[in-house]
Amino acid sequence: xxxxxxxxxxxxxxxxxxLEITPGFxxxxxxxxxxxxxxxxxxxxxxxxIGEGAEKPFAVLTFDDGYKDTRDFALPILEKxxxxxxxxxxxxxxxxxxxxxxxxxxxxxxxxxHIRIAGFDLPAASAAEKNAAxxxxxxxxxxxxxxxxxxxVADLVRAAGIDARSIPDNLCLDWAGIxxxxxxxxxxxxxxxxxxxxxxKLDEAEMRRELADSCASIEAHIGRPxxxxxxxxxxxxxxxxxxxxxxVELGFKSAVTxxxxxxxxxxxxxxxxxxxxxxxxxxQSLDFVEILLSGAPFAVWNRGRLVA
Length: 308
What we know:
45% of the residues lie in helices and 14% in strands. The chain has 13 helices and twelve strands. The chain is globular.
């Protein structure tokens, strides 16, 4: 699982760095995967290998959200290695109608010397204070509803004088960009909802609309079925049994979470609840990646269970 891939701009306050790696590290990860004997396949081939069994370990490279840097920085590296990949697109980001609220939160705190909003009174003059303020706000907001989260961040963005609409415009591909990517022989376009909500926080009808309408919109733009899904945020709060079953009923062939784990034959019966190995921007270490690829940490974290 990857998010942003772009050259690193050094800064003391970068709370979303876990979602960002450098192009050089992406290249190194692919080289190491191949050196360890992994074959890189597209998501459709992976599903066949899960069902039929695989002679070699395999990996699917996935990129969430639909960032411009997937095209600008990741794609040349993927082309160099002839590595297929899946890009999960959020339709609202392409249309500039949905909000990358975690980026809004970072940019607002970066501008403000003090946070006074929604009952919070937090110093934010130094990088250390800004990091502490982000952590406090993030933890509090993520525990509540989508409505409260978005409203509070919107208030903070207004206080900082930021145009929230400029963020997806700066960071994300528009429909023309997504359509162009869909025509690339290495790329599979997947679905990542309309507005990037935590689906588990929505009622049943709204959850299904996020899945079905985003799928229909993507299919209309790329001219082919979009049958692979990534749940936004993807943790147990954001995606659980209700969402897994909805994905089946709506016709998705696969759906990926952010739950950590490796793929096993038992996942053939759980294709809409697949785990992923996250390449974290805070840990851009090939040794760390190799330890994860061994599966040993997941065996400990998941208490020996192959399938959650």
